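Narrative summary of target 7.
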Amino acid sequence: MKRSLWIGVGAVLLLLGGWLGYRQVFPAGRTVGSLVPPGALLVLASDRLQDTVSARVLRNQISLRQLPVFDEARQKLDRFLYATADSATVLNFVSGRTIRYSLHSISRTTLDFIFYIPITASDKPFLNRLTNPDPRQYRVLNHTFAGEKILDLVQRGNEPVGSFILTDDFLVGSVSGILIENVAKRMHQSLKFASADADFQVDADHLAGLSVRPEVLQSLFSNVGSLVRLFLPEELTLQFRPSASRSHLVGYAVDQIGNRQDVAALFANQTPRRIQYAYLIPQTTATLYHIGISDASQFGKSLSNLLGSASSDFLRGRFKQIEPETKPLYQSLGPDILLCRLESPTGFLRQVLILTAQDGKKLANAYQQIAFRSGAKTQATPKSYLGHKILLLNVPELPASLFSSLFSGFSQSWITQHGSSLIVANSEDAMQDYLQQVQRGAVWTADARQAELLKTTLRPANFTAFARVNRGHANMLTSWPLGWQNLLDQVDPTTGSPALANLENIAYQASYGNENIQSTVILGRTTRRASQAVLNKVLLQKKTLFNAPLISAPIVTGNLSDSSAQFYAQNNAGQFVLVTPDGDKLVQNNTDGPIRSNALGVDFLNNGRLQYLFMTDRTLYIADPVRISKKVALQAIPLPKGIDPSFLARPRGSQQRNMVALVAHEDGHIYALDRQHRTFVRLMTAPNKGALQLPFQVISTPMGMDVLAIQADGTLNHWRENGTQYPHFPAKIERTNEEEPEIHFDGPALLPSGQTQIRTITDEGQLLTINTTGLIAKRIQLYRPVRSGSFRLFPDEDQTNWLLLRTTDTELSVLDQQGQRRFDVRALQSGRNNVRYHRLGAGIELISVKSGGFTMLYDLNGRILNDRPIPSDFLVALQFDERTNELYVLSGAQQAVQLFSIRLR
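Modeled conformation, tokenized:
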């Protein structure tokens, strides 16, 4: 009896233990984490993602629903829920619920979401509507997979809307039926194979949580400097909340140091801090990297150790070569190391490294000594620009040799000293652009919202990486895997634009301790969106009246968007008038005729400020504005006989420091303006007489300056700076057979940046690709309509990109680079038309068409940007202010100069 009792007790205990063990592995109620299929790229949670937000709020602050990935998840869930119920019912259902979303890869090019909505017994009416929708619009099918019933919501035409599973605690759904089948399989797997639930905090202060797998971070940063990946933790679990300014959302995370000990050692004993030298960051910065230093000597020792074990053989070998000279440089460093990658319409890296210093002279000397030890030739003669001495150190990858591969992209170093800081640029153009912006105050601290971002939103950190999305050739999306590109390029039906268009700034910041990395991710924008009431409206900002009619377009100096703008105008009495920012009209001098050319800003007088060069039919004038006295000194240089007065070019890359401008001669020669002797000298000679098709192209090369120009008869010239032509040039483009008409060109030729083949088009529409030997590699005859018109290559004003143009006397067609039509403009005034292609920075590209006395503006898809024509007797001047998203248009018409603004976004 006693034995039987013990056997019975044992059996009961065994059954109980077995039951408990079974429930431990296969519980009756599963957590949301146990439902997520393996391989989720990220998991996010929020109780406010589906909330409605007013248009007014969306214009002035960032919302969770405007962020990429968050927005895509919201759209997927909305498409599913709104198929079965009205908006009030859906919002009532999702209100206050913390909904999770997991992102998964379906194929190499496709990503999609699964959503997990917690449900209770009170949700039965809504779930009944979901499973029994309006039969006139939808129906629900079902099938069994892995022992689970899967419901498929389809439209009457059998187009799938989504699939879902109902458990006791969750409604699990997805647009993808494959992903729901993965959930079904997951529901019959042991919990010991499940990852732990992400610890998300969602409450009044925290809008959302986001967990990202380390391999996802690696793939998204695959095309950025390798050290950027080292700065990132191996996994990020972020809690998002609004910033103080409401213009950004900030995600905070504390993650284990993992395999980032080398980076942590780099910042040992370095106190996290904010950017202190923000007044040296130019406005056109597309990407910024910042390293904060509080102990320069300690940082130098740590950096030496890191570089001594660098993975790159080149950097490791270079550092061993220069190591004896590095200590003085590291000890001279100030609190900020800043790498600014500027907007680049050409796609080439335009980089500026700012090394702040405790002793600026000592830092500059140390940098030069390291350059000479690295193999730089004897010191070249410095150039002067805007009061700065600029020196070329022709040694590759010097910043990367000193500060790691994050600072690569310097094929040479152009250096100057600004205050106590050492400025290093990777090209002369980048250096000149940088100094111009700093001189006129186009820096981050001068922009109120950018300054607020720096002082309030960005946190003190050891390392900061900041990117402005969709800036010229800085679009992060294009470097991401194809699946991510397809996901984030989807258009939001409520706004008509991808979610990425709502995001301007992305920042990652990190501070490193012994055990943890404290990370901050910042997402938002510093520019305000325009309301529909003012979008694309032409608003008159200022009107300046004259006593006599104008005879040329006004010349702008300064920024049209602020009080620094002043301009020059000419009246029919030959007077050259300065209009000050206060609106004063000051007659400065007389010119010998109307201005025919563009205006070129150069440091002609070497007095620390820009002068403006322009030409009349007989004279080149140099206008030197003196703002303090509100005057302009006007100097004249006679033009040689035969000079074409319509085009001035900048001699980019020229090794001759006194050559400041290039002009074309009617015989096809190129002349240069010598600053020292104040005269024009023939720089390049055309063997065959004939005018060049303007604009000719100036190309900066490592060896100096090249010029590419084509003549109307098809003679293609490709000069070096010393006046000689490349082998096989000049090349004559001939017709392929005698039946074709004679070859003739109405437009220029162009060698696109980074390419080796020249592009041009005949007036009859033969699109030509020409190789470096002058031979035609490809001919394509474009379609010629009945009113054929003539074709020409259509570069933008800075020759950074090109389109094609087909024109008749009253019509024009803008074509892409393959000759496909983008849009047409018809009913133009015969003989009174002018069209230009503008690339204004911040991703803004447009076409201006002046016909008669008015100008219209178009984007590259043909959409009109101005709600009414802009009065203009001459070509208009355009500037875009990225801080306000406003386009400024300066126009001369009859006896007035008018300044208009147009809000674009």
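The longest strand covers residues 333-342.
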